[in-house]
Design brief:
With about 130 residues, the chain is mainly beta. Helices cover about 0% and strands about 45% of the residues.
Length: about 130
């Protein structure tokens, strides 16, 4: 069982930046493909970004490409999401997720149903 804890959310003005962290309670963090998802009020959960086990491959939703950067530090069992040029549309609860079953070292996935473990989420609010 893997526990994921997100942190770093908060209130920021449009154009500002935030850095989210996701720390896993496992020594085998490098075995997991990791991803970020978000859910705004009244909307379905949507994919934001994903990173492969060794961090060599990344994937982004079109809506955040060029503004958000996903990274990971396997030695610290932590994943990050650097969010720049934030917009009010980025307001949501942000969740980190871990996928152990993915085959291949450098794979990523945007499919929420492929992730087995989820954090509780952290609120990001962007004011206009």
């Amino acid at each position: 069982q893997v526990q994921l804890v997100e942190s770093g959310g908060g209130l920021v003005q449009a154009g500002g930046s935030l850095r989210l962290s996701c720390t896993a309670s496992t020594g085998g963090f490098s075995w997991y493909v990791m991803g970020w998802f978000r859910q705004a009020p009244g909307k379905e959960r949507e994919f934001v970004a994903a990173i492969s086990r060794r961090g060599e491959n990344t994937m982004y939703a079109d809506s955040v490409k060029g503004r958000f950067t996903i990274s990971r530090d396997n030695a610290k069992s932590t994943m990050y999401l650097q969010m720049n040029s934030l917009k009010p549309d980025d307001t949501a609860v942000y969740y980190c997720a871990a996928d152990f079953r993915a085959t291949g070292v450098d794979v990523t996935t945007s499919a929420a149903n492929e992730y087995e473990y989820w954090g509780q989420g952290t609120q990001v609010t962007v004011s206009s």
